[in-house]
Specification:
- The complex is a heterodimer.
- By secondary structure, chain A is of the alpha/beta class.
- Helix content of chain A is about 45%, strand content about 10%.
- Chain A is globular.
- Chain B is an all-alpha fold.
- Chain B contains ten helices and no strands.
- The chains are: A alpha/beta, B mainly alpha.
- The interface between A and B is large, with 65 and 65 residues.
């Protein structure tokens, strides 16, 4: 199987997100999925950019899709923001002929054309729909049942479900199902599906702090070994933002590692924590990793 | 007994007079991409109920919708509240009338941005994209870490192509009208 892959802005350039890229590459490679990076990928112009100008943003996102279309490949992305933006492009092209004409015109000026044929999937959606849980089960070599985690679906992978078409977002289960083959205990807790305030970072920082504080209080009370994220912004908020929240709100007992979803899958496949970048996160992942490695091989 | 905790807006501030409202505002929104659902709003408040920003501030999506439907155009477009949405799409997901509030906010923000009233944070990020092709910059520290992890070198974004798209679409004009305003107010 061959797919184009878009990494987004943050994943390849931020220290704590490098593990997301490394583990995604490992997992897809392990499952014999060949991936081609979008050549010279540019910003996908997600929601915040759409705020400034929707038309230009759609054209900017269509640029990367046009590149995938040139290669004749469908697209995978691990970034929820990119996923949301790319889904919106196809939706707009299909439903708004006037805007489509305008996008065609803009792209034509840089010698591109996007017909609208590229199907974009979130990495998790791809694993669930095209790889399947059985296949993950077959590749599972390490028992991860010693840990319990708080799994965050984030917002932009699921909402609105009419557009993104994975699962209704109020009580989603598909990502939990993906962790089942490895025996991971995913804990249901209050606030698990609520926004982390990531898109307000850099714009309304105090507000972003207040929202993140609520989320961290919620997950801290759930008594888990760590948080698992599927979105670049969720990760930056919970991992890089955690120390700031600890200080600002006096949450002295807060010390929760935040790992990327495919890092767990790759661990389950038998990869070592070092090759998955687990030592690059802001909050140390040592305790969680030690607990997993103590679990032994299957 | 004296009332110590008086509400901020009391009767003397009401009602809003006819000459303060623009009756066509809601239709202006409803005619733009993403704004179609606005006229279906029942003002039931499901949007405010699920809003993560509403749980930490007095921002309420229903209030914004109320102001828009009433026609308080200038007030809404100059207000900070339209820039407080965290874009989590929970209201959109829960709305029984498919108002798609998050998309309505995009329409409002687009209009405000053209007038130079965009949130400065977003303008800064857009400028970064204009310069680097992505919101972040590439650093040699991260390059070395990538090497250590066995990741391929980062491909530089096609800045030239992206710049042309941003120019042709009109985003650069929007950025300029906001940075110009910033200089003026300084």
């Amino acid at each position: 199987m061959k797919k184009a892959i878009a990494w987004g802005c943050l994943i390849p350039t931020r220290r704590s997100l490098l593990g997301y890229e490394a583990s995604t590459r490992k997992v897809l490679d392990h499952l014999n999925v060949e991936t081609i990076d979008i050549p010279n990928e540019t910003c996908c112009a997600p929601f915040w950019m759409q705020s400034l100008d929707l038309t230009t943003s759609i054209a900017m996102a269509a640029r990367n899709l046009a590149k995938a279309e040139e290669m004749g490949l469908d697209l995978i992305t691990p970034c929820s923001g990119c996923f949301h933006a790319y889904k919106r492009v196809n939706h707009v092209l299909e439903h708004y002929p006037d805007l489509r004409e305008r996008i065609d015109d803009i792209l034509q000026r840089v010698g591109l054309h996007y017909e609208g044929k590229v199907e974009s999937s979130h990495l998790l959606e791809f694993l669930y729909k095209e790889i399947g849980i059985d296949e993950l089960q077959r590749n599972s070599t390490r028992d991860l049942s010693s840990i319990s985690i708080g799994l965050r679906y984030g917002c932009h992978m699921l909402k609105p479900h009419e557009l993104l078409n994975i699962e209704y977002s109020e009580r989603p289960t598909f990502a939990d199902e993906l962790l089942e083959p490895f025996g991971i205990n995913s804990v249901e807790y209050a606030g698990r599906h609520r926004c982390c305030g990531g898109l307000l970072r850099g714009v309304q920082d105090d507000l972003a702090d207040d929202i993140l504080h609520e989320r961290l209080v919620d997950v801290n009370e759930a008594g888990v070994d760590g948080i698992v994220t599927v979105c670049s912004l969720c990760h930056l908020q919970h991992d890089m933002g955690q120390r700031g929240i600890k200080r600002k709100y006096g949450m002295n007992n807060l010390d929760l590692p935040v790992v990327h979803f495919p890092q767990l899958i790759a661990l389950g496949f038998g990869y070592s924590p070092e090759e998955l970048g687990l030592d690059m996160h802001t909050v140390k992942t040592d305790k969680l990793v030690a607990k997993i490695m103590g679990g032994g091989r299957r | 007994m004296e009332q110590t905790d008086k509400p901020k807006t009391y009767r003397r501030d009401l009602p809003i007079r006819d000459d303060e409202v623009d009756n066509s505002f809601k239709y202006e929104i409803a005619n733009q991409v993403g704004g179609e659902g606005l006229l279906h709003c029942l003002k039931c408040g499901a949007c405010s109920g699920g809003c993560p920003v509403s749980s930490v501030t007095d921002y309420r999506p229903r209030k914004v919708l109320g102001h828009v439907l009433l026609g308080l155009k200038d007030e809404v477009l100059a207000s900070e509240s339209i820039w407080m949405c965290a874009a989590c799409f929970t209201c959109e997901e829960r709305c029984v009338q498919q108002v798609n509030f998050t998309d309505v906010v995009t329409v409002l923000r687009n209009m405000a941005s053209r007038e130079g009233n965009a949130a400065p944070g977003y303008i800064k990020m857009a400028e970064a994209v204009m310069q680097n092709g992505r919101v972040t910059t590439r650093t040699s520290v991260v390059d070395k870490m990538r090497e250590k992890l066995g990741l391929p070198p980062i491909q530089d974004p096609d800045i030239e192509q992206l710049g042309k798209i941003m120019q042709a679409g009109g985003l650069i004009k929007v950025i300029e009208s906001n940075t110009k305003k910033e200089v003026e107010t300084e």
